[in-house]
Specification:
With 420 residues, the protein is an alpha/beta fold. The protein has a single domain, classed as 3-Layer(aba) Sandwich (Rossmann fold). It contains 14 helices and 10 strands. The strands form 3 sheets. A 5-stranded parallel beta sheet has the order 4-3-5-8-10, with helices on both faces. It has a 3-stranded mixed beta sheet with strand order 2-1-6, with helices on one face. α3 packs across α13 and α9 (249-267) packs parallel to α11 (312-333). The chain is globular, with a radius of gyration of 23 Å.
Length: 420
């Protein structure tokens, strides 16, 4: 009989825990908050030095409370010119520092007094919700889920396209690519899935979010993207190089459909929309340049052994077809567009692979986008360039870059839609 009270107490505790878990699931789903990046995340990324000798040794990747890579928003929106950058891995700038990535550099550049005067603002904020692996379908979903919690924005900048082409090739050039899942796109979202396992409990998820948002621990990634070195080697030793593809028209039609939808969605939520057309390494590759390339696999070179790749010419041809669709969509919708290819020379000075800019390349992109934002020629930008050049040189604090200033700290702290 003495065991009965203990059994009843155990049942009561289990019931209370279950009630708390169900309440946590209800709370998360009721709020319906979708974030590409969890608010409050702070990462220190150390690109593998053997694979990326041209990149910064320490990269800050900080997410503000709004779920954007960028500075915290000012408390008051009075006089604020707010810019949101969205897209895939190129604007994400995973291997470039917070203010070296072109959205971060754009933020610094537009803060110059001459630029603020031109924008009719007293302050500017550029936040970035771009993420690697995001194509037009995923970006359409992102804007559908994210924009409702935003006030009206002054400008939305979109750069997307390469993922549509790369993903199509990786999946075997099918007529219909695999659908996008919410969990593939949002690192923080209300759909779960939740389960009665410790790591999948909604209550644990709430604790994790609170820790990231308020305590803001630093996560360190050493030898980041080392896999890219092996992917480059796989391309170099590929057994088969394909010079043709199946008809890309279904892929291009789907890209065009989603791009049109997301640009309309952005236009409904911002005073201006700027489509920055996806640049790529668009030239005949020298032997040295070829060793830096890894895209174009007939499977996912970032996660498995791949022996068949599409030729550089095929990738360039597909990108040109995609780019032509993007330009046509922008013209049809009356959306401002920017073609970066005439400005961003295809060289290893500006690219560290087929699509991603080095710090020098990111600087060129930032200046070009700033000129487009200001609707002026690069001559006007030169008048305000000193501010961003100073930021690049001094990291806004002393003689070291932001990444270099973090190095001592790191030494102490190491311990992926709508249907069309």
């Amino acid at each position: 009989m003495s065991a009965l009270p203990w059994a009843m107490a155990a049942v009561a505790v289990l019931a209370l825990a279950a009630t708390g878990e169900l309440a946590a699931r209800w709370w998360i789903r009721r709020r319906r908050e979708y974030f590409v990046w969890p608010p409050g995340v702070r990462q220190r990324i150390l690109p593998d030095p053997d694979v990326f000798p041209e990149l910064e040794r320490v990269v800050r990747f900080d997410i503000n409370r709004a779920g954007e890579r960028g500075d915290e928003l000012p408390r008051s929106a009075h006089g604020l010119y707010r810019v949101l950058v969205a897209g895939g891995s190129q604007p994400e700038g995973f291997l470039t520092d917070q203010y070296t990535s072109w959205p971060g550099a754009l933020h610094q550049l537009l803060r110059a007094p001459e630029c603020l005067r031109r924008l009719g603002a007293s302050r500017v904020h550029v936040g970035c919700i771009a993420r690697a692996g995001v194509g037009s379908e995923a970006l359409d979903l992102i804007l559908e889920r994210v924009l409702p919690r935003y006030p009206r924005l002054q400008l939305i900048i979109v750069l997307v396209g390469a993922t549509d082409v790369i993903r199509w090739m990786e999946q075997g050039a099918p007529r219909v690519t695999a659908p996008i899942r919410t969990a593939d796109v949002f690192r923080c979202q209300p759909e779960g899935p939740f389960a009665w396992k410790p790591r999948q409990l909604a209550a644990v998820e709430l604790l994790r979010r609170a820790r990231q948002r308020y305590l803001r621990p630093i996560q360190v990634q050493e030898h980041a993207c080392r896999w890219m070195g092996e992917a480059r080697a796989m391309r170099a030793r590929a057994r088969t190089i394909l010079d043709t593809t199946p008809d890309p028209e279904p892929m291009l039609e789907r890209f065009e459909c989603h791009l049109r939808a997301l640009l309309r969605r952005a236009s409904a939520h911002a005073d201006r929309v700027l489509l920055v057309r996806q640049p790529w390494f668009d030239k005949r590759h020298s032997p040295e340049e070829a060793t830096h390339m890894w895209h174009g696999g007939a499977a996912q070179a970032w996660r498995e052994e791949v022996t068949t790749f599409y030729s550089f010419e095929v990738v360039a041809r597909l990108m040109a077809l995609m780019d032509a669709r993007a330009a046509a969509v922008a013209v049809g919708l009356g959306v401002q567009q920017l073609d970066l290819r005439p400005l961003l020379e295809s060289s290893l000075v500006n690219y560290y692979d087929g699509f991603h800019p080095t710090p020098a390349g990111a600087r060129i992109v930032a200046h070009a986008v700033a000129a487009a934002v200001l609707r002026e020629s690069g001559l006007f930008i030169e008048a305000a360039s000193a501010a961003v050049e100073s930021a690049f040189a001094a990291g806004n604090d002393g003689d070291l870059s932001p990444g270099e200033r973090e190095a001592p700290l790191l030494r102490d702290e190491r311990a992926r839609s709508s249907e069309c």
